[in-house]
Amino acid sequence: MAYRGPYELLLGPHDVPTGPFGGAGTGPVRGAPGAARAAGAALGAATAVVRRWRRRPLHPAGSVFTGTLHLEAAAAPGAEALGAPVTHSVAVRVSRAAGLPAPLPDVFGLALHWTAGGRSQDLLLAATGLGRVTRFLLAPRARPLEGGFGTLMPFQDLDGRPVLLAAAVADGRRRRGATTTSLAGTELVLLSARPGGPWRRLGLLRCGRPTGVETPRLDPVQNPPGALSTYPWAAALRAPAYRAARTGRRRTDDSR
User: Fold this and answer.
1) pLDDT digits (tens, 9 = 90+) for 198-240
2) Beta-strand (E) ranges in 45-160?
3) Could you give the CA distance from residue 232 to residue 13 in angstroms, rounded to a whole number?
4) β partners of residue 124
5) Which three-class secondary structure state does DSSP give residue 14?
6) CA-CA distance, 139 to 246, in Å (whole number)?
7) Is this prediction's pTM over 0.90?
8) Are 191 and 167 in contact (CB under 8 A)?
9) In angstroms, rounded to a whole number, what is the distance separating the alpha carbons of residues 113 and 110?
């Protein structure tokens, strides 16, 4: 049965894989339906307005750590596309989406960046639930490790089916630290699932020491992890905001 989930109104008849492993390349919105294009344009315009006031419109400040990503479970959804079994040295960034100060609730982001096969690969997760419905909903919280993180939107797997990725604290216990630095020394289980299916263990993320160095700007539309690809409707939603975050005018001169 074809996938029909929260985004079915955005799916179009030409919803094919994009990026280095699909046909549409980095004109990734080609084939996207009009609803996704319109929503993406609105998000891009909003991002450009915020960019006038601060360098990073979303996730303006974060903590960056060394990390090791172990992709172990070759039978999990998406594992073949991600090259499992394999281990990557990664940069891990955790941040607050709106930049609100602790202990105010915010939507935390968890971003991974690594290089493999001569290209950058980016995985962006946001604070979400992990239930069959809540995995599609953002979850503001006061502490970053009070719950799970998920991709929110699916990637397209090698077999054409959608796959979601998520991460949760390995021992299942919620951590009390309210700041982004509380991720140091933490292990998170990496999970994968079909949109309506159960989570399967995919691997383990070990977060190391703080680096004190910012990550490069990440873009999972242009740099999807492994051989996973981005649906045109998802690219149409996300790409304008990423583009605006890089090119929008700022009110003050900030070269950082």
Assistant:
1) 999 999 999 999 998 877 778 888 899 999 999 988 888 776 6
2) 62-71, 86-96, 108-116, 119-127, 149-150, 155-156
3) 11
4) 111
5) coil
6) 26
7) no
8) yes
9) 10
